[in-house]
């Protein structure tokens, strides 16, 4: 006797639910480069994976500055997790932030509920480090999230609109148009170059400034003796010369000490008047409630072994910027906090956890440096590849464009980003300069 279709379907659902319950549970906190690359490379269907993130989308941090300067929309560099994971039957997504880890119960507490795990993977990345300067934390513009980039876009556009009311008052006008960028790494360099390049665009959009000889100044401040410290000397020199030629005022060997009363106070005694301080000067990892203090190393990074397991805990792993591994003889101070490390660690850990099920030997993580790069402006970039290979100018710019375009998570992101770049290249302009979701229009006087 044949069973009714609805009974057969219900039995199949019960079997699937039972199988999920029997599978080992992996919980990943963070859907950035490391977390997503783990999911991409995890082949075993005997794991049930839950991805947890505070956003319901992933985004591409290296292009945040282009959202902030109105050259790209947030949708060009972002993609929803649930749509991305539709075809992965053993993976699901949960929106929430981590509140506490309870290692002895193998449980985590989220803002949106609780989850049990067999293996926990922390891939939360980093957050902005203000080095304890409270005024900077309150008043500077960070550059870590999509929300930050939109806030920066709104702020700069509102400043320009407000500045049109003070074309006869050079003291106020200077404060509203001057921009200080703190941090001479790739983010600081790229945003300084973009803002310098946009000065001619601002003049077109705001004819009120045409009669004013005063032009806004862009200051790039860094505590090191050179820009792009991790890169080659050639890249550092090429970048310095290119930015200086574009009018960026570079101040090295100086740190921001305070930001009060619209004045940026530097450690060399210099004071810059501005209402615009962009903070790209440092990052730090987060502290997880429930993990002992001896889990942490420099920069609050979690200390992990060669397999990315937290050294003093069982079944808890950390990958990407949130961890530091001291066992690699090529990187005795830990690996650099860059995308390639996160991607490679996610891939290696996925293979190792698959090997655990099959009782195969595990592979230690060995970082393969694929080079570094930074864009400066239109047709200007620097690229360092392994073996001392260096590129600058247009060819480096094309390499940067290709690598970043192909690194976007979905073909739709690539198409929209490429379209915007092509338009910007030929017109040297973009039509996305709109103040989105302004909190208010009560300008600061």
Specify the number of helices: 14
Helix proportion range: 25-40%
Which strand order spans the largest sheet, edge to edge or round the barrel?
Answer: 5-2-1-9-21
Second rung of CATH, namely the architecture of the domain at 5-54 and 96-126 and 285-357: 3-Layer(bba) Sandwich
Protein described:
It is a single chain. The chain is α/β, with parallel strands linked by helices and 445 residues long. Among the domains are: 5-54 and 96-126 and 285-357, FAD/NAD(P)-binding domain; 134-282, FAD/NAD(P)-binding domain. It is 35% helix and 22% strand. It contains 14 helices and 25 strands. Strands 5-2-1-9-21 form a five-stranded parallel beta sheet. Helix 11 links the parallel strand 13 (218-221) and strand 14. Helix 2 runs parallel beside helix 12 and helix 7 runs antiparallel to helix 8 (170-177). The longest helix is centred in the C-terminal third of the chain and has 19 residues, at 339-357. It starts with a helix and ends in an 18-residue tail after the last helix.
